Amino acid sequence: MSSKVIPLILGTRNELEKKIPNVAVAIRLKSKLIEELDYRCRAYEQTSILPICTMLDPRFKDIHFKNPLANSKVQESIVQMMNNDNDIVENETLSTAEPDCSNTDKHCDLWGHHKSLEKKRNDRACNNTPRGELNSYLHYKILKLDLDPLIEWENTKTIFPKLYKLAMKYLVVPGTSVPSERLFSKAGETISKTRNRLTGSRISKLLFLQSVDKSQWNF
Predict the structure, then answer these.
(1) Residues 94-108: pLDDT tens digits?
(2) What is the pTM assigned to this prediction?
(3) 77 touches 131 (CB < 8 A)
């Protein structure tokens, strides 16, 4: 899952910092590794997808964000997406709404205004606004690492319904920079971690051999 990328980067850096080497070469190696890690991975909190995936994972939420500005930016992005979803739902509701009670007295409700105010107050009390729902989620308990976040979201989708929709969209993003055709294809099976230096011509031959039906082999 992409939600693991940022926590793993910080975990790696933390483990490196805890090491106290005594040999000069090891000291330089530690320094260089931390330097390279910061250089190559410092922008991950600033990307659009990875921080959202991390925050929507109930195992991590916002506890791994080092940059307060990045944390705030991700929260605003999530709230904006929830607001956009609300706008779509409200527009659909308005387009399918029945005519008001102006034409028939039997549909008039003298307590209609009170019910509207009551709903607004209850919504605020239950944190049903996008910002309130996100804040409640962030203050909710952190899930243990060995538990499945997707199952947890199924269990809490009635508590955080708007966030649940976003979680189902972002938590399934694979945590890899490898193109999808490398993950779900014959080429992906052929070009494995231990065979990633194959030449193009050799790969073509191997893929051809894999495409030949077993019945064609005279074994």
Answers:
(1) 455 444 544 544 567
(2) 0.65
(3) no
